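Section: Multi-chain targets

For targets with more than one molecule, the full set of components is provided together so that the structure can be written out for the assembly as a whole rather than chain by chain. Components appear in the order listed by the source. The example entry contains two components.
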Amino acid sequence: MKKRWGAVIMTGMALLATGAVAAAGSDRAGHPCDPQRFAGEQGSDSRAAVLQSVRECIARDAGNPRLYTALGNLLLASGEMDQAREAYQQALILDPGSSTAIGGMADLLIKQGKLQEAEGLLKQLLALDPQPARQYLRLGELYLQRGDHAGAIEAFREGIKVHEQGRRSRL
Amino acid sequence: MSSSGIIRTVRGAVATLVCALLILVQSSVSSSALSGLEPGMEAPDFNLADLSGARQQFGRLKGEKLTILLFWATWGENSIKALTMMQSLHQRYAGKGLAVVGINVDRQELTPEMVQAIRNKVADLKITFPILLDQGLGAFHAFGVVAVPSTVVLDSGRVLRYELSGFPLVGADSLRQWVEATIEGKATTQRAEAPVNQPDKRAIRLFQMGQASRRSERTADRAQGWFEKAIAADPAFVQPYLALGELLYQQKQYPEARKRYEAALQLKPAHPLVLLGLGQVALAEGKDAEAVGWFEKALAADGSCLPAYYLLGLVKGKQGDMKRALELFAAGERMNPQEYRLFFNKGLMYEVRGDLVSAAAAYKRALELMVGKR
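Its structure, encoded as tokens over all components, is:
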């Protein structure tokens, strides 16, 4: 299974690079199953309720990769590593180019202490993500976990720089 | 990122400091009082969602005589005071030509939980005027707001008549008196309705052409010409000097930038952005002692000038006065805990001091504020 999702990610990255990935799923802002509604920090009580909502949404819209990513994020925050991995894998099967799912998978690997594996994933994602500031944040956190403060500083500063450049070009 | 490329010594960190400053710190010039907007100029329109999700524009919400736009955030104590005062003005003058609109600027991106927290705050304070959500902070940047809260008063033609940065006690009282006098048609000893130096309309247009040119990579090189034409059209109009100073600073033409800021200083000796600009030029030229003087003057001119706090903090820290530096950063953080530039500059300061652990924590915080915590 591990090999399979690795291959899926690589395919996704190739698609991201060519811009061939179209947005999947029917995500309408304000819709009860808009994955954006499940983002953000939640307390443990509300997290359980949100988890239930996401699962209900998946039951209705099983082809939406963003819902699986949202599920993975919630499970990861709850410490349910194995289930989180399955959710990210499902998201990546549905949308191999999902940078949020790949990023979530990197978060999972960091939490599991698989730093080298996570670093490889993030570095590949950095080259392909059009808005890579969040990947630099992840990379910096990874270096901090490794005790490499100078590396973390460089990653965080690079993230700040690219985000600022992106913001200016959007103005 | 290869590990061999990672900067591992404090010396290396200091060498990159200038580069980092050029990338980021310079942008703080565009962030005190109102940047690019002053009384007599037409303000930008907005198209923002209210708390029910309906889109709103100035034309729909404006008052017959005046419209107050209050840029506020739930995390600011002064924002709450400002909302309370605006509610009393709204209750008193809503039927007499005054409209009040609150524009929430809590965060760059608002999650549904944050929007609910804003609704709760509005309900707690019994606010009955419209509250808009500035998702993406487009209006915040378009109006050139720096301090939160900031109050902008527009006439029915969307021309800026009064602005108040922060919510200082005396300034707030003056604002209230001016609004009351204007609505009731009474004379006031406070600021005149029209500014003394009403900018020339052609100069304003040329300045705005320059601002528009700067926003596009394709036309950015023409901006300087537009600003120079604006100065020629109205040599007493301070905004093009400021914009030109910032532009030249970004191009590392420090002596030229200094000239423009000094010209602006002749026109407005206590303008916080002018003082801040001169401080940044001095800082870039390695004249730390001079920079301290300008930043302190900017603070004296406008106690809500947030960039002056963190830039002064940076220089004080570089000079080894960590106690004062941390006081300044803490004061700035109380004013706006969401300002990533504050944490970026704090990171720079720690990096210069060789404290990589604290530097990494500060940079991390800056980046989290930019992209949002997961």
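The CA atoms of residues 297 and 344 of chain B lie 23 Å apart.
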